[in-house]
Queue: 3 jobs
Job 1
Amino acid sequence: MSRVDWAPLALRLRSASRIVLTTHINADGDGLGCEIALHQFLPAIGRRAVIINNEAIPAKFRFLRGSEAVEAYEPRRHADLLRSADLIIVIDNSSPERLEKLREDVEASAAFRVCIDHHATVNPWWTLNCVDTDACASGQLIFELIRHMDGRITPAIAEALYVSLVTDTGHFRFEKTTAESHRIVADLIQLGSLSPARIFAEVYQRGSLAMATLTGIALRSLEVAHEARFAWMRLTRQEVAACAGEEEDTGDLANLALDIDGVLAGALFREMPDGRIKVSLRSKGIVEVHSLAASHGGGGHRNASGILMPAPLDAAIVEIVGGVADLVTTGAAAPALRAGKRR
């Protein structure tokens, strides 16, 4: 179980009157599942919360019960709400920079600020850090918090937390997957009477034609460097617009590079509408990309991180390709990877 002492947060949750939940920009299954699960739990202790994110919930997660509670930030609607809150809980994100649109209002608020996270960075900016880097997902921590507070895992909570765990473990492929991870998921399936097949279909088998087209474009741009230990792809703003793919989350396309034998790290570089370059980094085993992301103001996991960099695209590619050289060279020396073993 977690090394987090949940007592201080449990006390705050029972006494707070204006609670806001949020996560990082480009919310994923872990952050969204956690928000929805906690939002569903709070009425059981006589409390309610508002979920405010940078953007609307992605279509593939709208099947989750309670997903309609996720609100996309609008200054006129949400600035005063954030500034007048007495408890703000940020989940799956320890970086104030990744609050993006919400950051100014969160900083201006007198609220007690809590970070619930499983990433490696612990930021003293938060009033209270509830962080366990051994947890496979932030959803594991929300599960433990609810259990600590003697809460009931309802079917809606179980569904949201299941999505959190399966998406952030890559369906139990990643290194932080443990026996405890499987025990929690077994509990969630039983308590929620869940259908893993149905949830997989909702999350992974409802891709759009735009996403399929973008996948093909990205693969055609594939290049390798550092003795083919690093592979990367690119998507220009024009390519994304041409196939109406503006709303598509393409970050996981970087995983395709890891399917190539001998490649230890991969990246996708995408031009965003605001001119910045979104860099999605992925790696295998002991090759960690989090430090490279953090050095450019990004964040994430050891094997999966992201950065938002200034334009132009070619300059961002040159900088990251150069920066990853030492990481993949060190990783190549690992006997397990030389033998072709994967996490």
Job 2
Amino acid sequence: MPRKQLPPGFEPGTSVSARPQKGPGWEPVQTPEGPAWVRRHTQEERMYTELSIKGLFKVLEAPTDIGEEKALSLVQEMLDERHFGLLLDETGMVETPDGEILCILLKDRLRQDLMDAVRPVVREAANYAVAGANRGDSAGTGMVPRENKGGTPSNMTGVPPLAQLSDEAYQRLKPAKHGTFGYNARDLRGGELYPCRLTKYDAAEAEELALMSELAAEVAEAFRHSFAQQRWEAQFEKAAQTPMAFVLKTPKGYTPFTTITCNNTWRTAGHIDKNDLKEGFGVLCCLGDFEGCDLVFPRYKTAVRYREGDILLANVHEVHGNSPLLNPDGSVPKLDHEPERLVCVFYYEEDMYRCEDTPEKDREAVNKRKPGDPMYSRKSSKKSKKAAKAGS
């Protein structure tokens, strides 16, 4: 059946036919060349194409390994070009010297209409100041005692407020916002146990949850059909053991994610992601027009440059952080005039499989807890392989 060349304006990974097509995904459109039928390729098809064409998928080895101890010494440090010699900026994969996957970059994998639809949702979810919050390593400041209303130290700690920051940290963290979308497991804060629950962005409307779940499903498919498939399998198996009230899902099925961390205009310091499944993998995408802010893995002297429309799979259990955020023309931004850079990090939060069946039941279980009781009483309810497969 004859196929046309892609008309101007059509994205990579799209098939165009002059004749009506049958099958899922084909839609009639009007192109500059006249009526046509268009279908966007699946993530599986994209991966197959990239692996089939010689030279399209690069496999690189990290130039060195400085060791875990030296890498850990860079936690809370700002990372830049001094910390990497290899930059991955095209479709491909970087392996560590001992053959483990460090990161996989998949260029142009997300459709523009989906990016445009989720942009305001991500912006709204990432609406909490990093200064004064609880991510001290990522902020590069560590944690200090918070103050009660009367000015006395409280039993909780956090990132220093803006007024207590150095000039460098103030300029970097003043525009930085963050938040989470989806669900959180139980945790202790200030001696109080919080139940499994919706994240802080609990005002999300049904259509917003559907959009973010669609994005989660799309990046999950890329994850599933990548060289990190074993990590996807481990993560999906854990999701299959989890009450479905706490898993991101679409009408087509479940994803291996419970939670999405959203960051806005935040250059993170060296850190290791916490509370996400160790057997899993970090899955990221970003939005915005900017330069810089490459993701740096100092242990392996490697960085990755990903932009809007790309999907990045990364071992976020290694120390990582961002190079300086720059304007689209490469210049250094002025305070309060930084380019917007929105980031989504998709993951499975550890211990979610221990939550009760619904947020209401989990809150009730926490309220009934007695001093000395374990944080969770519920053990994972193993689902059958058949049930897990049905959810995929």
Job 3
Amino acid sequence: MHMFNNVITYIKKNRTIIYILLASFIFRLLFSLDNNKTLFCDISAYDSFALNVFKTGAYPSGLYFAPAYPFFAGYIYKILGYGYTNVYMVQTILGTCNTLLIYLIAKDIFDERLGLASAAASLLYWPLTLYSGILQSEILFLFLLLSGFYFLLRGLSTHKVIYFIPCGLLFALSTLTRSINLLLVFLIPAAYFVFSYKQLKKFIINSVVFVVTFCLVMSPWVIRNYNLYHAFIPVDSLSGLNLYIGNNEKANGFFVDITNQYPLNDPKLDNIEIDNITKKLAVDYIEQHPIRAAGLTIWRGLLFVGLDIGEVDWVLTKYMSQNIFFHYEPWYVLIYISDLLFFILAVLGLPKLLKTQKSMVLLGFIFYYFALTSLFYIQARYRLPVMPFMAIAAAFSTEKFFPRLYSAL
């Protein structure tokens, strides 16, 4: 009876975040339960790679994808049985944990109420929720990124080495999920120096622990790649291809299909050779057309910060049309309006992230993904890494424009 009373007391005390997490879980579940979804493009390729892990326990030849997500999905197939819904259910749990992590991060940097407002604001941007029901790496990546960021915050506050071990582990795993995080092995120690330059010994110890942990986690994959390809390949073979997609005569800021062009149309070339050739082609194009390349970069930056934010993600649109719960037209209108509102609130709240050193680290992560993505090309899902942090910025605008709603949290 005493334990029951304690549970009831805990629920009453934390009912707001429990309600938010419940809403996060239910919407993810409704989208994920309907398994009548067509596999296409990268989604189909992820399934093929995961099936290879399921059947053989090994990553297939080549380096088209970072390895973590194929292993993640493959071992879910192995443990729970082959079926997309099994992956979606695990991603639904991880995605709900992402909502919790947004709350914990905002609470750590600011306070309880802003944490609650941030978690609630994250639900306004529907791709953060609905990607739980898509066979792509975004939800796993966000979970590893946000978990690593939370431990980073604890490390910045306490300077305790115990936080830099999971921080290095999680950021390395996030890099093995999406290679865009690779530069964090250098940037995290640089950011940490701002917090610890007066405690040089702690800075050196904690930074070394972070870097060593990061590199140890990466090392099996790097060694595997060196043994197979006799080259230093930290993650995958997509950087050159992605750079070329964003910088060629057909480039328009978005994805353009260049599969009928050399070297992609040459069946004799492997992923590594294609990556090296396309990287050189992209660099040559940038050097020969510096003004257009600069214009494309600015245009991609505008697209990233939301010039087309009202447009519903085409992957979500395709899957919503096949979903028993979400195929009704009002959902498209709601998501359009909700995403637009989220982005307006987030942009208006960004200056508030200059308030503290720790919130400036959060702003730094936003700029990091903005800067790197602007070099390549824009897809709606490429914005997802910044949206948990933008949700915290949106929470400040919620406080300003919806004070009654904010105070009710």
